[in-house]
Amino acid sequence: MTQPIEASIALDPAHTVAPVSRRTFGSFVEHLGRCVYTGIFEPGHPSADADGIRTDVADLVRELGVSSIRYPGGNFVSGYRWEDGVGPVAERPARLDLAWHTTESNRFGTNEFLRWAATQGVEPMMAVNLGTRGIQEALDLLEYCNIPGGTALSDLRRAHGFAAPHKVRMWCLGNEMDGPWQVGHKTATEYGRLAAETARAMRLIDSDLELVACGSSGSAMPTFGEWEATVLEHTYNEVDFISAHAYYEEKGGDLASFLASAVDMDGFIEGVISAADHVRAVKKASKRINISFDEWNVWYMDRPESDIPKHSWPEAPRLLEDVYCAADAVVVGSLLISLLRRSDRVTAASLAQLVNVIAPIMTEPGGDAWRQTTFYPFALTSALAKGDVLRVMPVSPVHATERFGDVSALDAVATWDADAGAGVVFAVNRHPSSPMELSIDARGLGTVAGATATLVHDDDPKARNTQAQPDRVLPREVPVTVDGSRLTLSLPAVSWAAVQVRV
Ligand code: AHR
User: Which of 333, 365, 398, 400 is the most exposed place for a label (fewest CB within 10 A)?
Assistant: First the structure.
């Protein structure tokens, strides 16, 4: 039996970072693989409603606690003609989708998505195509969505059966334009100019928008840093957010480095903030640009699941259908700790993606829907994080990792809802083999009335939930010892926990 390592944190409501932003718990629906078709939308499915929406999936999306959803891509948006996806379904054209080498039927489009989002109670976050298209098409889509009526495109929407404007507030100006894989890939200057002009024109239609400029597709991009600075030089006054994207995977059996993936995310966030604040200083601006971390997750890019079709153009094929294990769930929980920790600047985020495609929810066509392991840390954090985010300083042994050097075994963040007298600690034991005794000093919150903890862990870090065994990995309650204001609990190696404290 390995000796447990000892780690501790103290909670102090004076160490407030920012209020919890509900938009931290966003997700992403792309026309990719089976995210839309046989994911959220499947006419003829036993659970489908009159609009073809799978209500079994809709229920799970609600349980996941998603706040906002980005749509329709992703790489897909950079070749998308939004007009193809509106109007009578029988008249909609099928098109080649160059991003994923598939055929897009366009049976589901803007109105179907926005109606679904409204029914789900989630905020839509639309992306415009700045790959193959430009300012005019972005303006057209905005007019179609947000103008009540009396113009060609708003009246077209009304003729399509949607009398009320959709009032979409948050818009992404393209997707991953720094990536050579992107259809219509651009240099930072080319993109910065186009994004600025598009933003300026969109605000002439609707001054109330919140706009996101594309940042880097990952911290390892050769242009990272320069890209943000250049794009923001052009767009600083026109946009509210710069985006960041990051995907992590276990490579070569190096579990210790994989568990420490958040070290990269932390550094990435700091880098984007530095670039944005550099431009702020140069421009002598008072406004700050925040981060929309609008794609993040675990993604096994080199597995056959992510092979893009080469010789055919299938419709809604199985693509990027990663089946996640217990260790993947621990990493997802740990990445959420990083996002929450910088709630002062990361004010929106999207788990990529929502259903079937690197997703917390899986489905079978005509069949079941179930929760992947990664569903649980997301759902628990979304449900429990309330009030203000508190900065905590983990006191913890470090261990060596190949990719990130010495890494603290414990990482943690806390939230504090003063009105409800409820604190929550989100903690992860990133050590690949040592259990941890975690001690929490809750004196700063007041007199502790009780505490409970929910653990995401499996003795087999590779354990997965599948259609045959959908409940193989489940969160479970674990004991917390309360001694005055000191709480202690055991965190097994490779585990994530939410500890609720009542005062
Ligand atoms: O989420 C899958 C893909 O990852 C998105 O389409 C793209 O933006 C990113 O590279």
Answer: 400
Question: How far is 425 from 415, CA to CA, in rounded Å?
Answer: 7
Task: Check whether residue 322 and residue 399 sit in a common domain.
Answer: no
Domain that holds residue 191: 21-384
Give the domain-ending residue among 384, 413, 445.
384
CATH number, domain of 495, equals: 2.60.40.1180
Give the residue, out of 175, 216, 351, with the most ligand 1 atoms within 8 A of its beta carbon, to mutate for a pocket test. 175
pLDDT confidence bin for 95, thresholds 50/70/90: very high
Looking at the structure, tell me whether residues 152 and 85 fall in a common domain.
yes
Q: Report CA(496)–ligand 1 centroid distance (Å).
A: 26
- Taking only the tens place, the pLDDT of each residue in 362-397 is 999 999 999 999 999 999 999 999 999 999 999 999
Once rounded to an integer, what is the mean pLDDT over residues 304-324? 95
Q: Is 316 helix (H, G, I), strand (E, B) or coil?
A: coil
CA distances (Å), origin 258, targets 18, 244, 334, 407: 28, 19, 11, 11
Same-domain pairing of 349 and 396: no
Give the H/E segment covering residue 438.
strand 436-441
**Is the pLDDT confidence value at 481 over 90?**
yes
Share of the chain above pLDDT 90, in %: 99
Which atom of ligand 1 is found nearest the CA of 247?
Answer: 4
Q: What is the pTM of this model?
A: 0.97
- In order, the DSSP letters of 250-295 are --TT-HHHHHTHHHHHHHHHHHHHHHHHHHHHHHT-S--PEEEEEE
176 is catalytic: yes
Average pLDDT over residues 141-156: 98
The answer as to whether 16 is a domain residue is: no
Candidate list 42, 83, 176, 228, residue with the active-site label? 176
**Residue 276 above 70 pLDDT?**
yes
Give yes or no: residues 288 and 402 share one domain: no
Same structural domain, 327 and 473: no
Are 183 and 331 found together in one domain?
yes
Last residue of a domain, one of 384, 407, 432: 384
Both tokens assigned to 340: 């929450």
295 is catalytic: yes
Ligand 1: residues with CB < 6 A are 30, 73-75, 175-176, 217, 295, 352-353
Residue nearest to atom 4 of ligand 1 (CA): 74
CA-wise closest residue to 99 among 37, 216, 183: 183
Distance from residue 133's CA to the centre of ligand 1 (Å): 19
